[in-house]
Sequence to fold (491 residues):
Amino acid sequence: VSRDLERELEAIGRRVSPRLDHARSAVTRAAEQVPEERRLWPWSMRPLRPRPMAGAVASLAAGAVIAAAVMLGPLVRPATPAPAPPTSGAPVAMASDLGQPTTAPGTGPAGAAGSASPLGEPSPPSPAATPAVGPDPGMTGPPPASAASAPSAAPGAAGGGPDQAAPIVTASPPPTEAPPTPAASPPGGPTPTPATWSQRGPAAEAPSPTPTPAPTRITLTEADRGTTIHVRRGQQIEVDLSAGPGAWTEPAVRQSSAAGVLRLGSGGTRSDGSAHALFTAASDGSATVHADRAPAACATSAAPCPAAAAQPFDVTVVVTG
Amino acid sequence: MSISAAAIPMRTEAVEEVEFEHVFAEAYHRVVGLVTAVTGDESLAEDAAQEAFARAYQRWNRVGRLDRPDLWIARVASRIAIDGWRKRRRETALEGTDRGHLSDDVQRLWVRWQLERLSPMQRATVLLHCWEGRPVAEVATLLGRSQATVRTHLLLGRRRFRGFVREEAP
Fold:
């Protein structure tokens, strides 16, 4: 059957197109009329053409990337600060392991407490309600010499008296960097903070995959009085003492373990009583930044203001490489 | 006819050229006849057959390795012709092929192989199925259709033929 069909088809074809050579020439001409790109590019090297599904594939890929970013976001971001219960002993406010100062402008002690909680240190309840967080039983110690003026540092510590320990603000280097060495506190300074303190807690156990560089400028406010901060060489310490009752003197370096630990860049007082200074951590060592606020009565009185009436501002700065 | 290029281990350009010439000389008229029988349009069949051979020539390094490159060419030519036939039908708004322009040999083929009342695609299915006794699966592959579609075409073709025979019987 197929032979008959084949024979019939061939007969029809011979009648329709009898000249085989003409047909062969036509085939050659048609074969040469190929797109230019086919002749220039071998099959394996031919550039890809946009496919009908290319847009859908690209959309799916973009969606997958966005979804992955959303899912990985909580892992990359630092832990959310958790409220910390009151503590006993020396209230220690710990800067985040990423080196964020706890006393950012506008945050005050509450900000310091919030940024310290990522460490997640358990804290026993204490009747002395102090909003400082990150307590460590081993961190308790005698109140620093400058703690007499500490109560005004934190709202939660308003009920506390001068005998309360001053909060220690520790600005640690990023987790990927070398851990800070224990800094020697100047004589009479606040309780030294163990260097391993900043390495504990979930933030230290699970360091961020994308380390955040330490801030180049740390701002200290009145709330930080009596604290000790650890900075790295090159960082700037800005002292911003806001106006209030009385007038601030210009912040200056009072005690220094070595000359040139802190270099004063600019500073001064304003007519409203506030003061401002900008220091640069120049070399290793420790130094105390000091300023005094005279009570308002002293400002209007012709008599010299008694020393006890002054409200000093002291912050110990420990500079490490 | 059985042209198997896959048995040739080393295929140079000259060898491929010779193979193509051999297949062209063997299969050209048969492909033209097949396409003519499918569409009933002789000019369309010649153009479609030459276009199919040209496409085969362009990719002969792959087509030539097939067991039956002539069947690949026949399928391509049939599809080209059917597409052209549909386009021409839309342009001329004709229903089917005007049998008045059919040559006698094509009319005889249609009657003998029961192709008169079939669509071009059904004719191609039946012809490829009967040509060399290709099974349904192979015809489906050659036509680029599913096996169910090919079976449906075959069934419709037989039914139409039976109905045509009953109408003509009295």
In short: The mean pLDDT of chain A is 63. The CA atoms of residues 241 and 275 of chain A lie 5 Å apart. The longest strand of chain A covers residues 285-294.
